[in-house]
Design goal:
- Keywords: Membrane, Oxidoreductase, Transmembrane, Transmembrane helix.
- Pfam families: FA_desaturase.
- InterPro entries: FA_desaturase_dom, Fatty_acid_desaturase.
- This is Omega-6 fatty acid desaturase, chloroplastic isoform X2.
- The longest helix is centred in the middle third of the chain and has 54 residues.
- The strands form four sheets. The chain has a five-stranded antiparallel beta sheet with strand order 5-6-1-2-7.
- The chain has 17 helices and eleven strands.
- Helix 3 runs antiparallel to helix 4 and helix 4 packs across helix 10.
- Strand 1 and strand 2 form a beta hairpin.
- It is α+β, with helices and mostly antiparallel strands.
- It is globular, with a radius of gyration of 23 Å.
C-alpha cells in the first residue's frame, strides 16, 4: 500500500491488497488541515510528502479517493492525479472567463447541425427492433436469463427516450409537428409526459450546474439536511446506494404537478399528461389481461426500472464530479458550465448504439440543436479546438464510487462534502458502499 498527501490537498490511497482499517483521518478544527493517525502499521520508509509501506506484490491495483481540501485545477500534475483518483481519463483545465458560448459554437462545422430524416428514421428502427427483440427474449428466456433480457430491454427502451429527447430539442426532424408526435409516442412506454419533461429540460440546458436553478441534479443543502432529521436516512440512501434509480423520484415530483409550470405551458402539459394516463388506462390492463400481473412485472416494470437506471446514471455522470462546481447565478459562466462542467463518458459499444450516443454529451450542451447522430463528429471538432478543456472518462467502478460516496452536500470551497463527514453516525450506507464497491478504473 502507498499513501501520499499531495500538494493538491487530496489524500490518495492505492492498495495492492485490502485497506488498512487501523488508519484514521481527523480534521484540525477550523484549519482545513487533515491529519493521519496510524496504528499498528508495519515499518515505513519516509520521503517528503509521502510514505511507503511494503506489502506482497500482486497484479491488482486499487485506488480510493478521499477529498481533503479543494485543489487547483491549474496544474497539469494535479489534474492528472485527480483523474486517477476519480476514475477520469482526463480532467480539463479551467476555461478562461473571456471565452463565450459563441466562441465555441463557431468552431463547430456547419454540417453537424444538419437534420437528416434518413438517419432519424434509422434511429427509430434501431430502437423499435432492439425493443421488440428484448420483449421476445423476456418471453422465451428461462428464469435465470431474465436479468440479461431485462438489461437489454431496459437499454433498448432508453433509446426511445433519446429519440423523444431529440424531438424536444427540435433536432430530430424538419417537420416540427411530426417531432412533437414522435416525441410523445416515444415517451409513452416510459409513462413519461413529453411536454412537461421538455419544459424542465430546457431549463437544465439554460442553467446547467447553477445552484437552485438547474432542474436535473442538485447537491444536498446542509441547512435543509440538518432541518429534517427524520428524512436524513432517506436522503443518504437516495444520494448513495439508491442514486442509480433516483430519476424515478424526479419523474414523479417534477412532471405531474401543474403548479410547477408557467401559465403559457399548462395546455401542452395537460395534453401530454392525458396521453400518459391514456396509455396507463389502456396499455397496462391489456398487458395484465394477456400475461397477468407477473407478465406486467416481467414485460413492463423490470425494463422500466432498467431505463431509470440508465436515466439516473447518465445524468449524474454527465455533470457530477468532485471537481465540477455548482455556482450561484452571479458567479455562473455559461461556457464554463457547458464545456468544463459536462462530462464525455464512453460506455460499451452496444449501449452507445442502443442509446444513440447520448453520452457524447459535451457537444449536446454546446448546442442542443445538434442531432444525436452528429454528436460524434461534433465531439471530434471540440477535441481538436478545445480538447485541453474537456472532461473525459470511460464508465468504470471508480467513477461511480466517487459519485456515490463523495458528491453529496454542497460546499462552496470543496464543491461537495460526503455524508460520512457531515453525519458519520448516520452514514452507514455510504461506508458500506466504500467497502463493497470495487475501485477499478
Amino acid at each position: 500500500m502507498a499513501c501520499s498527501v499531495a500538494d493538491s490537498g487530496f489524500l490518495f490511497l492505492a492498495s495492492k491488497q485490502r485497506p488498512i482499517h487501523s488508519t484514521r483521518i481527523t480534521q484540525v478544527a477550523s484549519s482545513g488541515t487533515y491529519c493521519l493517525k496510524w496504528e499498528s502499521l508495519p515499518q515505513i520508509r519516509s520521503k517528503q510528502k509521502s510514505c511507503l509501506i511494503s506489502l506482497r506484490k500482486t497484479n491488482v491495483v486499487r485506488a480510493v479517493a478521499v477529498p481533503i481540501a479543494p485543489s487547483s485545477l491549474d496544474s497539469a500534475e494535479d489534474r492528472k492525479r485527480l483523474s486517477e483518483m476519480y476514475g477520469f481519463r482526463q480532467i480539463g483545465e479551467p476555461l478562461p472567463d473571456k471565452v463565450t458560448m459563441k466562441d465555441i459554437t463557431e468552431t463547430l462545422p456547419k454540417k453537424v447541425f444538419e437534420i437528416d430524416n434518413g438517419k432519424a428514421l434509422k434511429s427509430v428502427l434501431i430502437s423499435a427492433t432492439s425493443y421488440t427483440l428484448g420483449l421476445f427474449m423476456i418471453a422465451k428466456a428461462p428464469w435465470y436469463l431474465l436479468p440479461l433480457a431485462w438489461a437489454w430491454t431496459g437499454t433498448a427502451v432508453t433509446g426511445f427516450f433519446v429519440i423523444g429527447h431529440d424531438c424536444a430539442h427540435k433536432s430530430f426532424s424538419k417537420n416540427k409537428l411530426l417531432e412533437d408526435i414522435i416525441g410523445t409516442l416515444a415517451f409513452l412506454p416510459l409513462i413519461y409526459p413529453y411536454e412537461p419533461w421538455r419544459f424542465k429540460h430546457d431549463r437544465h440546458h439554460a442553467k446547467t450546474n447553477m445552484l437552485h436553478e438547474d432542474t436535473a441534479w442538485q447537491p444536498v443543502w446542509k441547512e435543509e439536511f440538518d432541518s429534517v432529521p427524520a428524512l436524513r436516512k432517506a436522503i443518504i440512501f437516495g444520494y448513495g446506494p439508491f442514486r442509480p434509480w433516483m430519476s424515478i423520484a424526479h419523474w414523479w415530483l417534477c412532471h405531474f404537478n401543474l403548479k410547477k409550470f408557467r401559465p403559457n405551458e399548462i395546455n401542452r402539459v395537460k395534453i401530454s399528461l392525458g396521453c400518459v394516463f391514456a396509455f396507463m388506462a389502456i396499455g397496462w390492463p391489456l398487458i395484465i389481461w394477456k400475461t397477468g400481473i407477473i407478465g406486467w412485472i416481467k414485460f413492463w416494470l423490470m425494463p422500466w426500472l432498467g431505463y431509470h437506471f440508465w436515466m439516473s446514471t447518465f445524468t449524474m455522470v454527465h455533470h457530477t464530479a468532485p471537481h465540477i462546481p455548482f455556482k450561484n447565478s452571479d458567479e455562473w459562466n455559461a461556457a464554463q458550465a457547458q464545456l468544463n462542467g459536462t462530462v464525455h463518458c464512453d460506455y460499451p459499444s452496444w449501449i452507445e448504439v442502443l442509446c444513440h450516443d447520448i453520452n457524447v454529451h459535451i457537444p449536446h450542451h454546446i448546442s442542443p440543436r445538434i442531432p444525436s447522430y452528429n454528436l460524434r463528429a461534433a465531439h471530434q471538432s471540440l477535441q481538436q479546438n478545445w480538447g485541453k478543456y474537456l472532461n473525459e472518462a470511460s464508465w468504470n467502478w471508480r467513477l461511480m464510487k466517487t459519485i456515490l460516496t463523495i458528491c453529496h452536500v454542497y460546499d462552496k470551497e470543496q464543491n461537495y462534502v460526503p455524508f460520512d463527514e457531515v453525519v458519520p453516525e448516520e452514514a452507514q450506507p455510504i461506508t458500506f458502499l466504500k467497502k463493497v464497491m470495487p475501485d477499478y478504473a
